[in-house]
Amino acid sequence: MNKNIIAIAVASLGFIIGLGLLGNAxxxxxxxxxxxxxxxxxxxxxTSDLITWSGSFSKNNADLKSAxxxxxxxxxxxxxxxxxxxxxxxxxxxxxxxxxxQFRSYNDSNGNYxxxxxxxxxxxxxxxxxxxxxxxxxxxxxxxxxxxxxGIEFTSSSPSYFYTKLAxxxxxxxxxxxxxxxxxxxxxAENSGSKLGNLKKATMGVIQITAPNxxxxxxxxxxxxxxSKEKEASIxxxxxxxxx
Length: 244
Description:
It comes from Chryseobacterium limigenitum. Keywords: Membrane, Transmembrane, Transmembrane helix. The chain crosses the membrane at residues 6-26. InterPro entries: 26kDa_periplasmic_antigen, SIMPL/DUF541, UCP029033. By secondary structure, this protein is an alpha+beta fold. It has helices at residues 2-33, 64-84, 134-142, 145-148, 166-191; strands at 35-47, 50-61, 92-94, 98-107, 113-131, 154-156, 160-162, 196-204, 208-210, 230-243. Strands 2, 3, 4, 5, 6 and 7 form a 6-stranded antiparallel β-sheet that branches. Strands 1, 8, 9 and 10 form a 4-stranded antiparallel β-sheet that branches. The chain is elongated, with a radius of gyration of 34 Å.
């Protein structure tokens, strides 16, 4: 008899505890559903303050030393030219010389590729400049034909543009995106007759830097445009609030 009473009591207690746990689960579930998630956008337009530019030049000769001497002469002409245009010597960087053996190649009567006899050496060197004088280097890159007119086989690359204060821009955009998201959340809560509660979660997207008014695609890992001097950066912030 006593054993039956104890069993019933234990079962009843377990039932009561179960109801309590179920009630808390339902309460917590409802509470977790009573949230709002909003994404805010922060943007900033700015002008690049750093530019890089490079070009390459080459010489061909059957004799390696002669090819190297000729390349050295061209290197001096290029260096002197850049200095004459107001470029500082410490901004001019010449790479190591790339040496490639050349062979006379042809296709035989069966159409097979045949590497023929050695025909000489091709030596190539690259010159690059990094400067905060953006306008000066832009002008230099546009008028590089002056070097070609001096008999130098020179190939110029397009300039690349950067911004040295990107960390400050990012902080400003994060603040702007956070403010935008919060204002949107407050408006939605107000229109639904509720009040915004505590912030539960904040998630930041990656920074995207594109040319202004362009149709460049955003990248999952972030886009960084270097071809445009004028840039537009954007970042998103997703906020999750409790709603009372």
